[in-house]
Amino acid sequence: MANIKSQKKRILTNEKRRRRNLAVRSELKTRVKRARDGAATGAEDAQERLRLAQKRLAKAGEKGIIHKNQAARRTSRLMRDAAKQLSGD
């Protein structure tokens, strides 16, 4: 355990950030999964699901929760797969 006051504060803030990041990453997985399922089944709100997943990925990349390139890569794959599914291939 740290002796230094600033380090004790840092431990607390790191834990808060870790929990927040965990929740955001969990939501990302859920949004992407719902978007993929919506595109695969041809749900009427598939476009909306895709838009929300794309938005969350971009935001997580901007905030540094995931790397910007990872956010771009995951968005690209999601859109590519959705285009295949929605076009009927």
What can you see in these coordinates?
It contains three helices and no strands. It has 89 residues and is an all-alpha fold. The chain is elongated and about 60 Å long. The mean pLDDT is 93.
What is the assembly state of the chains in this entry? single chain
Share of residues in strands: under 5%
- How many DSSP helices? 3
N to C succession of SSEs: HHH
Which regions are unreliable across 5 or more consecutive residues at pLDDT < 50? Answer: none
Count of individual domains: 1
CATH architecture: Up-down Bundle
Mean pLDDT: 93
Shape category: elongated
Alpha-carbon distance between the termini? 57 Å
Query: How many beta-strand runs?
Result: 0
Short structural description:
The protein has 89 residues and is an all-alpha fold.
